[in-house]
Write a structure and sequence with these properties.
It is a single chain. This protein is mainly beta and about 120 residues long. The protein has no helices and 11 strands. Strands 2, 4, 5, 6, 9, 10 and 11 form a 7-stranded mixed beta sheet that branches. A 4-stranded antiparallel beta sheet has the order 1-3-8-7, with no helix packed on it. The chain is globular. The termini are far apart.
Length: about 120
């Protein structure tokens, strides 16, 4: 079964950091663009960040620019989202998704494989 799996969520205080990881099962993530998305309660799923298959192109939502960093290690087939200076408004379920393209383009309705999500809660 082809799927992606996220890990690394948790409960943290405002100003803290977390690193999310995304790995693939059944296919090689290295050939895919990968995006991170999030969905807060009562809100639509939104794009957070995207990285091209080789890592040369990255994009970020305005709300996370300067705080989040997406990266990938194609030797072990993992994509990371380093989240610093977390705010309560970052609380959401975070999803990883892969798209069968090389470029760094991750429209939410064009992704091919989705994970089940990992919960990030930022609260004091």
């Amino acid at each position: 079964q082809l799927q992606v799996v996220e890990s690394g969520g948790g409960l943290v205080q405002p100003g803290s950091s977390l690193r999310l990881s995304c790995a693939a099962s059944g296919f090689t993530l290295a050939y895919y663009a990968v995006g991170w998305f999030r969905q807060a309660p009562g809100k639509e799923r939104e794009g957070v960040s995207c990285i091209s298959s080789r890592g040369g192109t990255t994009t970020y939502a305005e709300a996370v620019k300067g705080r989040f960093t997406i990266s990938r290690d194609n030797t072990n087939g993992t994509v990371y989202l380093q989240m610093n200076d977390l705010k309560p408004e970052d609380t959401a379920v975070y999803f990883c998704a892969a798209r069968d393209v090389r470029i760094g383009s991750c429209p939410v309705d064009r992704m091919d494989y989705w994970g089940k999500g990992t919960l990030v809660t930022v609260s004091s």
